[in-house]
Structure formats: C-alpha cells, structure tokens
Specification:
four-stranded mixed sheet; alpha+beta; 51% helix; 119 residues; 4 strands
Length: 119
Amino acid sequence: MSHAVLVYDGDCGMCEKCAGWLRSHMPHVQVVSHHAYGVKDLSAVLLVEGDIHYEGASAIARMLTTSTLLRYRFLGRVMSLVGIRSIAQVVYSMVARNRSRISRMLGLTACAVDGQRTS
C-alpha cells in the first residue's frame, strides 16, 4: 500500500480511540479525521488508496491485510472471505449505530451523531 488514508469520524470518542490505536499499530496508513480530510459528513470509515475507496468493514479488512504483522494480515484476509465479509459488515454496522452509546460506556466523549446518521 503506497499511500493509503483512513478517514474516520472525528466527532466520536470511540472512533478517536480506535484511530490512536491504528496510528501506533498501522504506521504505514495515514489516519485522519473527516474534519482534517475535508469531508463534511462521513457515513462509514473510509480507506482511500489512490482512486480506490473502501468503506466500513471492507476498509478495515483491506487495511489489516497490508500490515507488517502476520496476525493482522491474517485477520484482514479472514474478514475478506465471502461468508465472513457479510458477517463483518453486520458487526461493523451494529457497532457504528451504537458508537455513541459505546463511547459513553467507555467513558469517552460521546459522538455528536444525530438520529439520521448511522455510522
């Protein structure tokens, strides 16, 4: 992965925490908030590799497959398998819908998400 950018919801405490983890464990990926990337509204985490865009669980799986660590590459490949990919997207969607609640449970800043946004 030559120049990849992972764009996350900068208004979400859980997303900020995950972004910090990704910065320390995936240094080959530029991890930026949607504010810094210049996106007004983000419906799902976005991985940008040149002209190719991945969203949601697909973005996470693709990013993991590029890791220098075998365990993350393996996890990314498993998430990309046909049967698992659908399950990963369902789990991603459930976490995304509940990220404000999860942030509060973890004592993090709750998302500035209104009822219309689902990620």
